[in-house]
Specification:
Layout: H1 3-6, H2 29-35, H3 53-66, E1 70-75, E2 81-83, E3 86-87, H4 94-100, E4 111-116, E5 128-134, H5 144-147, H6 153-156, H7 162-169, E6 172-175, H8 179-184, E7 196-199, H9 205-218, H10 227-244, H11 250-277, H12 283-298, E8 301-302, E9 307-310, E10 331-336, E11 338-339, E12 348-353, H13 360-379, H14 387-403, H15 411-415, E13 459-462, E14 465-468, E15 482-485, E16 488-493, E17 496-499, H16 508-525
């Protein structure tokens, strides 16, 4: 008999089991019994209540007030496959994180349900009782302990118990096995005693399908069920969750300050890496790696893919390939932010001379962008509109472009609605809200966002830029290949705006002095004196 005849027929093994071919895990009863024995008891006490717990409860109460009598379903989302059986690091949906206070990598497949309660009989006197459904730690006497590579303690470490999360969050918890019943029970039209559901959609396909099936099965006329009406109900919940984040509470502001401070550290590491980056074929990747290392050391992750763009790459607004070299005479545009363990992120941009000194034309463009940023900051006052920041900043840019003879029309015509010629070199918006998402509150209504009134508690960016591409024949050659953006993170207070990222130098001379100081420290540490 040949080897082929000794080999089991692969067709007899189900396809979904073949992913485990590499593991060679024992399956004997003796192994299972031995694996379940002789483990020390966990024996840890319940944790203290998290500082975020009361703030998260207040957020849930605010949402409860908007949707009385309706069941609200907010999924964290599942793990996402990166390749074959390897997953991306898990990050919960921002609406889920905001209402629970959970950050880090908790909790794949979890779902927060706000169940309608009688008037004033819900949590904190509200209209709902909140329950967090998730998959808790499996006992060491279970096969999941050593066999489940996605949730087993042997593979990924300990998971919190129901009691631990309840103690930390001040939130009722339940095993995920009860989730289907919790979502589908008593669903139906309110006029016949049923409960209406609102769902944050496109987060977890399984939950979407479960809610859709429940709605279909309980509809009076399933064949004529108006899905557009139901989608609109769900969109209102997503909209409300987004708008709730327009104003940050005290705990959120602290998280933003922590994220910005960590980001400043990351920028310092980038300057330290520049001497090596200048000698590397992929200098942009050297820079990217330096920032990422700091983000992982002091935070959870990057808030978004780092833009490390040198020379003409800096004129590509979302250049995240970072495959280019960095030459001594070029500018490096670095747009990067650290996401801290709570999942709040900074978003800061500085444009640095790669060799530590701006050329005359680079300084000219840089200072125009800085003037625009300062004008935006001056316009950002309580009671003014969010869009006024953009108008103030881009007007300055139009004026500079006109002074340099680059604008083909007058400043007045360019900044008119019918003109906008200056936007050839500044095509993006000047500001966006910032928080759990780098572009936070994106589902908020226009009248609360672009036309919204600047109010204490808002956190947003101011980030004008000028981008002169190598291939742009509308400008003199001396400008080509220069891209400059300056971006700061701003907290609005009752007394006016506060620049949270002011610790990073902004003026051209200050940038040069800051970089020279770091290079001097590097040379001193290497025993070379200063440059």
């Amino acid at each position: 008999m040949n080897d082929a005849e000794n080999t089991p027929n692969s067709a007899s093994q189900p396809l979904d089991e073949r992913v485990n071919n590499r593991s060679q895990r024992p399956s004997s009863d003796a192994f299972k019994a031995f694996m379940a024995s002789n483990w020390a008891p966990t024996g840890h006490q319940l944790p203290a209540r998290d500082a975020v717990a009361d703030y998260a409860a207040a957020r849930r109460r605010a949402i409860s007030d908007q949707f009385k009598g309706e069941r609200l379903v907010i999924p964290a989302g599942p793990l996402k496959v990166r390749s074959n059986d390897c997953d991306y690091r898990f990050r919960p949906h921002s609406g889920f994180a905001h209402l629970t206070g959970l950050g880090l990598d908790h909790e794949p497949d979890a779902v927060l349900i706000l169940e309608p309660a009688g008037e004033g009989s819900g949590d904190d006197g509200g209209h709902h009782r909140a329950t967090l459904y998730f998959r808790p730690l499996a006992g060491r006497d279970t096969e999941q302990f050593y066999a489940d590579s996605r949730s087993g303690e042997f593979w990924i470490g300990a998971r919190p118990t129901l009691a631990e999360f309840e103690a930390r969050l001040g939130l009722s918890t339940a095993h995920i096995d009860g989730l289907e019943t919790a979502i589908t029970k008593n669903v139906g039209a309110p006029e016949i005693g049923g409960i209406s559901i609102r769902l944050v959609r496109k987060v977890d396909e399984n939950i979407d399908a479960l809610v859709d099936t429940a709605r279909y099965n309980t509809a009076k006329d399933p064949e004529n069920l108006d899905l557009a009406v139901l989608d609109a109900l769900d969109e209102k919940l997503s909209e409300a969750l987004s708008e709730l984040r327009l104003l940050k509470d005290e705990w959120e502001v602290e998280q933003m300050m922590t994220a910005v401070a960590a980001t400043v550290e990351g920028f310092e590491e980038v300057v330290k890496s520049l001497p090596r980056a200048l000698t590397h074929a992929r200098g942009e990747r050297v820079v990217e790696g330096a920032f990422f290392a700091r983000a992982r050391e002091v935070g959870n992750e990057l808030g978004y893919d780092t833009i490390a763009a040198a020379g003409n790459n800096a004129t590509v607004l979302h250049w995240t390939r970072n495959t280019g070299s960095i030459s001594a005479g070029e500018l490096l545009l670095l747009d990067a932010g650290v996401e801290v363990d709570s999942l709040y992120t900074a978003d800061v941009t500085r444009t640095l001379p790669a060799n530590g000194t701006f050329t005359e034309i680079q300084r000219k463009v840089y200072e125009a962008v800085l003037d625009a940023a300062d004008a935006g900051f001056a316009a950002a006052q309580p009671g003014t509109k969010f869009r006024d920041i953009h108008t103030a900043a881009t007007t300055v840019l139009a004026e500079r472009l006109a002074e340099w003879g680059l604008l083909p029309v007058s400043v007045e015509e360019a900044i008119s609605t019918e003109g906008q010629q200056h936007r050839r070199w500044m095509p993006h918006g000047t500001s966006h809200h910032l928080g759990l998402d780098v572009h936070d509150c994106a589902q908020a209504k226009r009248e609360l966002y672009l036309d919204g009134i600047l109010t204490a508690g808002m956190v947003f960016t101011i980030e004008p830029g000028l981008y002169f591409k190598n291939e742009d024949l509308a400008i003199p050659e001396e400008y080509r290949g220069i891209g400059v953006r300056i971006e700061d993170d701003i907290l609005m207070t009752a007394d006016g705006p506060v620049n949270l990222s002011a610790a990073l130098p902004r003026k051209a001379a200050d940038v040069e002095s800051w970089m020279a100081g770091i290079y001097g420290e590097l040379d001193h540490a290497a025993g070379r004196g200063t440059i």
